[in-house]
Write a structure and sequence with these properties.
CATH class of the largest domain: Alpha Beta
Structural class: alpha/beta
Strand order of the largest sheet: 11-1-15-19-16-20-23-21-22
Number of strands: 23
Number of domains: 2
Number of helices: 13
Radius of gyration: 29 Å
Largest sheet: 9 strands, mixed
Distance between the termini: 69 Å
CATH superfamily of the largest domain: Zn peptidases
CATH architecture of the largest domain: 3-Layer(aba) Sandwich
CATH topology of the largest domain: Aminopeptidase
Length: 534
């Protein structure tokens, strides 16, 4: 009898072990979780970062996500009424938390304009001929509209403005049409006079940035013409004609939003040989004798530009929680607040993507402010940026990096928060697993040291499971990374039901998940803001 009881007990125990293993296997398959190694039990004294992270709570996170994804926000698409309402919601919260705004801005808003890259309607004609846009001349930068008529064009040589050589030194091109050409000046021995870089084989100087890279050379000339107040710039570059015309066709092949140029900027066009000869009387720019005297070509010319795309206004929000007054170093906490918008009568609430990231950043502001008010002032300034235009080719991030209100060289790290409130296939909080995975990608930090620091932090954050993934160019941080600013990307998963659909609603976000994830990320940012050395 005893043997029978012992046998039954063993069978029950084995069945229990099997059931437990099956449950873990089920959770692993359902949520994509990795097996968690049992953490050694040790006494842990809470850190200051842990203590102040407790100010980040699920009810407050839920409040922000619910407000931002409410139907009155109409999906928060950039350039719409709902997008502006969301920006104002963030502005009001910045005021409540007493953040300061950058001195470069008149408030917390950094505004920009953008337009679809539809082909504009452009007329360029002289007294001899009307030329065809896309064939005889092209343009890349989007503009609004302009109508210019003049009886002459000012030739400004290479259009170069450099300490060693300046085509604008004796030119007055304000409110004029200026003509410039590709290439750069050389001495009688064939040496490029701007460059100091030598060809190791010939001993001669190599081309400078003004002609080595066709795109950079074009942009530099455009900026120089704009600085000197030119109304329009005609650029003839015979050396890269096919390159520019090929890229022009590619530029308009795919529809996307592009950052617009301000109305008071220069209108610029690349022209072909026929237009150049029509204006100057020369087929080859090298046949023109360059002088310091202003050269005018008396050619009646008419340029009319009309943008066929609707111009929208985007808004980035920027608020600063100031740290040590003697510091000139900054940490940026980044998220995008725009969503999918309203289309065909359906609202896309975009609750997890990315009201969850915005809510996390807003709650971090309160937690850091509480710490600062308690006497724990960060060594570095914390900048909270909520971008628009993420869903439209990341135009908000591109504009910020082109017009940073915090010097990029003083920006020690950019931390992006994205889609923090969902787990894969999670249907309700009743299905929550034991560990919440958070994906981390980073660039610009010592890999081994940074991973060790994160692993140590995770060791006493019992709800977090870390997933390290390669950093690819997939979100707003991309534009900072290209400028060699260290970045860290924290995100949940895109593989959840309702992603980019009307079903991405606030009631489907798990606020326990977002609370634990946000508290964990807060502690990492705390180290970046408070440590003496990064």
């Amino acid at each position: 009898m005893k043997l029978r009881i012992i046998t039954i007990s063993i069978v029950v125990l084995l069945l229990s072990i099997y059931a437990c293993g099956s449950k873990k296997k089920e959770l692993k398959e359902k949520y994509g979780l990795e097996e968690e190694k049992e953490k050694p039990k040790s006494k842990h004294k809470p850190t200051l970062a842990e203590i102040f992270s407790e100010n980040i709570t699920a009810p407050e996170l839920e409040y922000h996500v619910t407000r931002l994804s409410d139907s009155t926000m109409e999906g928060r698409e950039t350039g719409t009424r709902g997008g502006r309402k969301a920006a104002k919601y963030i502005w009001d919260y910045f005021v409540e938390q007493q953040l300061v705004f950058p001195k470069e801005l008149d408030g917390y808003f950094q505004k920009y304009t953008a337009a679809q890259n539809d082909k504009p309607i452009v007329v360029l004609e002289t007294d001899i001929k009307a030329y065809e846009f896309g064939e005889d001349f092209i343009a890349f930068f989007p503009h609004d509209r302009i109508d210019i008529k003049d009886d002459h064009v000012i030739f400004a040589g290479y259009g170069i403005e450099d300490p060693k050589y300046n085509d604008y030194a004796y030119q007055d091109v304000k409110n004029k049409i200026v003509l410039v050409v590709g290439g750069e000046p050389r001495d009688k021995y064939g040496n490029y006079i701007i460059s100091n870089e030598l060809d190791p084989y010939t001993g001669r100087t190599l081309p400078s940035v003004w002609s080595r890279d066709p795109i950079k050379g074009y942009i530099l000339r455009r900026n120089a013409a704009m600085r000197h107040g030119a109304k329009a710039m005609l650029y003839y570059d015979p050396y890269h004609h096919d390159y520019f015309w090929r890229n022009f066709r590619k530029h308009f092949a795919q529809k996307k939003l592009e950052i617009s140029v301000k109305k008071d900027s220069v209108y610029d066009f690349l022209i072909n040989k026929d237009i150049f000869a029509d204006i100057t009387g020369y087929d080859n720019p090298e046949d023109i004798k360059y002088t310091k005297k202003t050269r005018k070509y008396s050619v009646p010319i008419h340029i009319n530009y009309r943008n066929t795309s609707e111009v929208i206004e985007g808004i980035n929000t920027v608020g600063i929680l100031e740290g040590d007054p003697d510091s000139d170093e900054y940490i940026i906490v980044l998220s995008h607040y725009d969503g999918q918008g309203k289309h065909d009568g359906k609202i896309y609430p975009s609750a997890n993507d990315n009201a969850s990231g915005v809510a996390a950043s807003l709650e971090m502001i309160e937690a850091f402010k509480t710490a600062k008010d308690s006497g724990f002032v960060p060594r570095r300034h914390l900048v909270f940026i909520n971008l628009s235009g993420r869903e439209q080719n990341m135009i908000g991030a591109r504009f910020y990096v082109q017009h940073p209100v915090i010097p990029l060289e003083k920006t020690l790290a950019v931390i992006e928060l994205h889609k923090l409130g969902r787990l894969r296939n999670l249907k309700s909080d009743d299905d929550l697993p034991e560990f919440y995975p958070i994906s981390i990608s980073f660039n610009g930090f010592n890999k081994a040291n940074f991973k060790n620091a994160l692993d140590q932090l995770q060791s006493y954050n019992n709800y977090i499971s870390l997933k390290y993934k390669p950093l690819v160019e997939a979100s707003d941080y991309t534009h900072f990374m290209r400028k060699h600013v260290p970045v860290i990307y924290y995100y949940g998963t895109s593989n959840y039901s309702g992603y980019h659909e009307p079903e991405d609603t606030a009631d489907r976000v798990s606020y326990d998940v977002i609370e634990k994830r946000t508290r964990f990320v807060f502690q990492i940012i705390w180290d970046l803001a408070y440590k003496k050395h990064l």
